[in-house]
């Protein structure tokens, strides 16, 4: 019996007879010859079925095969006569696992996004959607590799939490037995801040939730965040770590996912320009620049989506926007020693109109100041006592940041809307499939 081989490994099996297990993606031909496009999760290959070379049973099977039918196919691997690095299969035998009797809902013709999202469970099979998931996987691996190399330990933070991390307006609340309310985590940051006192540097990666009423191409209600946190790291070093991390991820993708980037028709020239140093501008500078570009942003405003779009189309490098007015940022951020009204924070904006992919800051490490901020922000008394404890027992300067996995993936893949970068997107109006 021939060995089962993944399509991505056909190059190592030229002239051998192999078995492929997969699905029929497409079919051409008739009469005496069929060209089957097979996919198996690792790639797509063309299998040629010639009436002269197979039994009449096998030829009839090829004739019957419908889109997305599952099958096993045996044949000899050959090199494509003209294209370098393309392999084909000269079919000997086909065994159907399941024949699809209904017309497959997703055809080659253009479909509207809402139809595709209704059929997300099937849409995921398409070459573009597969390519996005493969790239997402490389990004995740790249983050683990880089951070592990830099001494960050993976620490898993909880999803059920008693308090807000990023403001109380967009929390998902649920009833928690006799304890009252619990909230789905908005970010694991506060827990990582506890963990740095144990392991020094750490990161998490998990789903987070925002009951935000934002219906933009950049917002989901459930998304995946990688938070990193490090003891004894101050603002500038925090940015350095983020910069190196992003450069290393982009390099890894350019090296390992050429095929997928091509499938996505991603122009890779902009990605090749992602090198250190990134641009660094203060919020005040950016406000001035944006106003000159026609934005009505005010000095004490956060950047809006459109502001991020126009600013990041102007430069071909990522931009750190630092020192936002503290009033528009989270309670835990340390203040700029040179100006108490500013937070010692930075958002990292990706070029080509993508905007914020990372939010981070140095953290307030002084007990009294943090306690005062918690009161000023009217956060529930008592719930943050554990977090304040961290400023009582060996407090140190520390910083961290959180990457939105879908925003980072959307930028690298060149997809406009982040909903395509998560297998099953959750938005205000979408919970199915
Ligand atoms: O800027 P955010 O809100 O920062 C935090 O949550 C910090 N606690 C992180 C930290 O310092 N450890 O979120 C971080 C990133 C954003 O930069 C953005 O990429 C992404 O998460 N993000 C979203 N992605 C999709 N949908 C949403 N609704 C998002 N909100 C934030
Ligand atoms: Mg943010």
Secondary structure topology:
Elements: E1 17-30, E2 33-39, E3 44-50, H1 56-64, E4 70-79, E5 87-98, H2 113-118, H3 120-123, H4 127-149, E6 153-154, E7 160-161, E8 173-175, E9 181-184, H5 189-199, E10 201-209, E11 222-231, H6 235-256, H7 258-263, H8 269-272, E12 279-282, H9 283-292, H10 305-314, E13 319-322, E14 335-336, E15 339-343, E16 345-350, E17 355-362, H11 367-376, H12 385-389, E18 398-404, H13 405-413
Parallel strand pairs: 3-5, 6-10, 12-13
Antiparallel strand pairs: 1-2, 1-4, 2-3, 4-5, 7-9, 8-9, 10-11, 11-18, 13-16, 14-15, 16-17, 17-18
Helix pairs in contact: 4-6, 4-13
The protein binds 4-amino-1,4-dioxobutan-2-aminium adenosine-5'-monophosphate and magnesium ion.
């Amino acid at each position: 019996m021939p060995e089962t081989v993944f399509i991505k490994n056909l190059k190592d099996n030229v002239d051998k007879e192999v078995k492929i297990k997969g699905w029929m993606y497409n079919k051409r031909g008739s009469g005496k010859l069929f060209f089957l496009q097979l996919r198996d999760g690792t790639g797509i290959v063309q299998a040629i079925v010639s009436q002269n070379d197979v039994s009449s049973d096998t030829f009839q099977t090829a004739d019957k095969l419908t889109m997305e039918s599952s099958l096993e196919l045996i044949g000899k691997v050959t090199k494509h006569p003209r294209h370098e690095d393309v392999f084909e299969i000269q079919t000997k035998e086909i065994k159907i696992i399941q024949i699809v009797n209904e017309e497959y809902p997703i055809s080659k013709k253009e479909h509207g996004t809402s139809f595709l999202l209704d059929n997300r469970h099937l849409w995921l099979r398409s070459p573009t959607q597969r390519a996005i998931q493969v790239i997402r996987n490389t990004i995740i691996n790249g983050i683990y590799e880089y951070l592990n190399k830099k001494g960050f330990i993976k620490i898993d933070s909880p999803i059920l939490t008693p308090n807000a991390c990023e403001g109380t307006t967009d929390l998902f609340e649920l009833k928690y037995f006799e304890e009252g309310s619990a909230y789905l985590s908005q970010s694991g940051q506060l827990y990582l801040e506890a963990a740095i006192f144990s392991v020094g540097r750490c990161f998490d990666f998990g789903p987070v939730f925002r009951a935000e009423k934002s219906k933009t191409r950049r917002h989901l209600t459930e998304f995946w965040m990688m938070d990193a946190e490090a003891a004894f790291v101050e603002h500038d070093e925090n940015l350095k770590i983020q910069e190196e991390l992003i450069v290393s991820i982009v390099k890894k993708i350019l090296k390992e996912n050429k095929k997928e980037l091509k499938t996505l028709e991603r122009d890779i020239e902009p990605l090749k320009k992602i090198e250190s140093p990134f641009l660094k501008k203060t919020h005040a500078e950016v406000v001035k620049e944006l106003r000159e570009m026609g934005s009505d942003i005010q000095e004490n405003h956060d950047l809006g989506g459109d502001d991020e779009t126009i600013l990041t189309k102007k430069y071909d490098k990522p931009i750190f926007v630092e020192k936002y007015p503290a009033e528009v940022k989270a309670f835990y951020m340390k203040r700029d020693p040179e100006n108490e009204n500013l937070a010692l924070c930075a958002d990292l904006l990706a070029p080509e109109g993508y905007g914020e992919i990372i939010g981070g800051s140095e953290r307030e490490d002084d007990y009294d100041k943090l306690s005062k901020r918690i009161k000023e922000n009217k956060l529930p008394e008592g719930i943050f006592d554990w977090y304040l404890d961290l400023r009582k027992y060996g407090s140190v300067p520390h910083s961290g940041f959180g990457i939105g996995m879908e925003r980072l993936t959307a930028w690298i893949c060149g997809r406009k809307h982040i909903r395509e970068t998560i297998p099953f997107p959750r938005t205000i109006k979408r919970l199915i499939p």
